[in-house]
Design goal:
The protein has one domain. About 40% of the residues lie in helices and about 0% in strands. The chain has five helices and no strands.
């Protein structure tokens, strides 16, 4: 049994020499470092209003991490990748009884 997922995956590689580097299991921002700053700037919004109103109900740190992962995975110029984390945080606070009014036309479209 392999301790690292990349080693396990590489054991099944069909084309020799096309292995997945070990750092790809560390997170998308570790792999796509060119998007790390964009992810930091985008996802810090979860620490600001209107999301800040939910902090006493749900700690945002897990959602910020998820947001950064998504933004780095999507890459530059693809807006909306952070929306999944924003929705998840809003949903988590709603389950705790706090409804966040974070949707605005300039921010995200309604679904």
């Amino acid at each position: 049994m392999e301790a690292q997922s990349s080693k396990f995956g590489n054991a099944w590689a069909e084309i020799p020499g096309h292995d997945v580097p070990d750092d790809q299991t560390q997170g998308s921002c570790a792999v796509f470092t060119q998007y790390e700053e964009q992810a930091r700037i985008t996802c810090i919004i979860l620490r600001e209003m209107p999301f800040k109103e939910g902090h006493e109900f749900v700690d945002p740190e897990r959602f910020i991490h998820m947001c950064k992962h998504d933004v780095c995975s999507c890459g530059e110029g693809r807006p909306g990748c952070e929306e999944k984390a924003f929705k998840a945080y809003s949903y988590a606070t709603a389950l705790q009884g706090k409804i966040l009014n974070w949707r605005r036309p300039a921010f995200f479209r309604e679904y």
